[in-house]
Amino acid sequence: MFFRHLFSVVRKTAVCVAMEASNATASVECKTHNSPPSVEEVLKMKWEREQKDLKEKMLLMDVDDWSKLKITTDVVNKFPQKLCLRYVGGVDISFIKGDDVNACAAFVVLEFPELKIIYKDISMVQLTAPYIPGFLAFREVNSLKEKIEKLKNIQPSILPQVVLVDGNGILHPRGFGLACHLGVLTDLPTIGVAKNLFCVKKLQDAGDWLPLIGISGKQHGVIYRSCKESTNPIYISPGHKISMETAIWVVEKCINYRIPEPTRQADILSREYIRSLCNKGESDKKPSHKKKKRERGQKRNEFDNPMPSETCEDESYLGPGLDLWDS
DNA sequence: GCGACAG
DNA sequence: ATCTTGTCGC
To answer: Which stretches does the entry tag as region Disordered (predicted)?
Structure first.
């Protein structure tokens, strides 16, 4: 059972998590009408409304047959393809060191359950919006959405039945992370898979706390140990048109290494592209791909930073009743 | 006032 | 996100 892999968090990333205020106010603090609002504050208020509107279209349940049946490897050929999970997508964006605008976006489709790449779309994109914590989607979602829409047009037969997104789903200050945003805009099931815990609510006052093994109410996501080689967990939350249970099931089936294959491949390919940019002429925007792959360089990233030995006493795994933040 | 903050 | 080698362990 994958739930056995869930473990209580004693890592530093989790320490900063705080309890959500019961009287949830807008997370964007409006200054008292003394100083004029900064550009960032204006953006936050505008984007917060947008998130709220889009969130109404979000669906947190399994809507497709494959997600209800969860037919696995051995019987996959005995059923009509419509009932099976066959195509899993992954998206990721990589950046150049000193460039805030130009980045490389990758969208891949893997065949399931073999997890082999059958489609890839990697290209440079322009990211104009700034990155503001809690509003990642406004920086990245358009580039990703375009690639998905492109596939809808040129080869809808291999359109992924679910897309894994690097970033959070409902595990988000306002319950609407990048995975949700992308899901609603593309009308595809999405799953958020983050490599770091995003604090849903900052510690407001001394004494504020958050039970990781929850108390009541809504479950925002799970902390998931994806493989035995790494104690460093990932953070899974449903994005759109998928249930918590199915989201975990999909991620589990996509694990070769710590990061599920769809997003891992998207990450590898976009980095590779950026790298070939640097090796090539700096003025040329269209570099020719070099087939040179650094087998060892990749491998390093696969097993990220092991947990410090002092924090390794986490034999306390969470049970199936895991709750996270209340909403 | 300062640090933290998915990617 | 990005800057970065070797190294320890199964």
So the answer is: 280-327
